[in-house]
Amino acid sequence: MLKFMKYKWVYAVASALILIPGIISLLRWGLTPSLDFTGGSIVELRFEKEITPQMLEEFATESGIEVVSVQKSADSTYLLKAKEFGKDKNEMLKQTLTTQFGQVEELRFESVGPIIGEELTRKTIVAAGVAVFAILLYVVFAFRKVKGEIKSWRFGVAAVIALLHDTVATMGIFSLLGHFFGIEVDLLFVTAVLTIMSFSVHDTIVVFDRLREVLKRAPGIAVEEAANLALTETMIRSVNNSLTIIFMLLALFLLGGTTIHWFIFALLIGTIFGTYSSPFIATPLLILLGKIPILKTKQR
User: Fold this and answer.
1) Which residues constitute the signal peptide according to the record (predicted)?
2) If you classify domain 4-34+116-299 with CATH, what class do you get?
3) Residue 3 to residues 163, 225, 236, 257: CA-CA distances in angstroms?
4) Which CATH class, in words, describes the domain spanning 40-112?
5) pLDDT digit string (tens) for 176-217?
């Protein structure tokens, strides 16, 4: 049996090194929102001749369009994101580009108003809050019959804190990427965050369930020793399970299209954090919550 809990403060320091820069970035710069949240227009164009992103941006600006970004999505295909503009300016841009570069095919033209952007932001926050609260209630209910000094609410609180650890770490990394490299967050990022939350709790419940079995098999065992035994029994299974997901996500990240590139990256780092937090954040927290004097008094 490996003494995992002997190094719980090392895990805390490692998490702090990841979380603190991300939290500072979130507080100072926040996330860089895409047009899904701010409102604006997206045009995807395919060109007959070669053109650079700089040239496309220059012609768009001359057409009176306030360009946010220009990305190459495929061979001779570009995705232009800008503050909201109408079809008249879009037609003007296409005519100018056709004159300069030959045939131009419009693959997509979409506009998202700022009211929709505000609504999406509000729904995102509400969805995340509901998910966290539901997970807390579920974990407390699932472990309500655990006997001994570990109360069911400690399982719920530890699982939610580990979940928040993974979520904040992922958001912190994207905040830094947004500030230094202009990476934007969109609805796919929201999907990734909610997926990360579910994966984090799933892995944590596996560890907690084994801990419950250990406590049931050996009623007099110390909680820390039971945690070491539970982690020893589940570690290989958790790592193997996560590696299969990580390998698949790596393949998609390296070979997938640009549209899902950062969505896959968010899932990838979230999976890594989720694999780490279940044994090294949630489990130590479960033990530490029982050592806080005020909480110990309330439990009695």
Assistant:
1) none
2) mainly alpha
3) 24, 8, 15, 43
4) alpha beta
5) 999 998 898 988 898 899 899 888 888 899 999 999 999 888
